[in-house]
Amino acid sequence: MHEIERHRVILSEVEARPIVTVAHLADVLGASEATVRRDISFLDKQKKLRRVRGGAEAINPPSDVSLLGRPYSVSQTINMDIKRCIAKAAVDLLSDNMSIMISGGTTTAAMSEFMRGLKLQVLTNSFSIADQLIKKSKCSVTVPSGKIHREQNIILSPFPDDISNHTYADVLFIGAYGINSHGVMETDPQIVQAVMKLINRADQRVLLVDSTKFQNRSSMIICPLSQIDIVITDDGIDNKSKEVIKAAGCRLIIVEKQKQ
């Protein structure tokens, strides 16, 4: 990522929450922590943010704090060809008149492109998925009540009892920030809570992750791998990760990366 673009993303992150860490920015930018520290130092001298120990904060801290993790707009620029292949493989599992739930994310959002010819009952907390399906499909679409988080393009309810507690589906599709032997991981507790509401409300649970997610780590666990029925990923997955998935009893579907 070019320096100017890195600075834009850093300022966007700082404006979205009170304090951002160097580690978080390195993950969002796909850059080294040393590069991030230099960028923070430069922006601090420009008086566009304030450098603090281990990170940076806004000159005027936000009153409305956003979710942790990469903004949706940034995630959309990463591995999208692979994510589309994974999404197509997920839609290949479906047929007309099925009921499904789809949790928000850029990989799951790519499913909407391939669902246009299907008649499905869909519950999703993804504003992007709902918008695409309403405009370009025959699907019946339901969204939960709650707050729209613009940076993540997701709708999250602050209440323990919402429509997700009164819905059951044939299949639940979810993405993840990371995955390993400990389970399926996300970065924000609100997202973890939203997915946990759905995890036991479907006959089958399908996880969509590109192979880079097997290197990501977080302290926030959605569920153990044993609760996932199918994992769809690309052929960049390493043998150790394959064994972890199979040991958990998951069916593994591997899609080939598109030739450039």
TrEMBL record:
It comes from the Bacteria. Pfam families: DeoRC, HTH_DeoR. Keywords: DNA-binding, Transcription, Transcription regulation. The keyword Metal-binding does not apply. Residues 3-58 form the HTH deoR-type domain. The keyword Disulfide bond does not apply. This is DeoR/GlpR transcriptional regulator. It comes from Marinomonas foliarum.
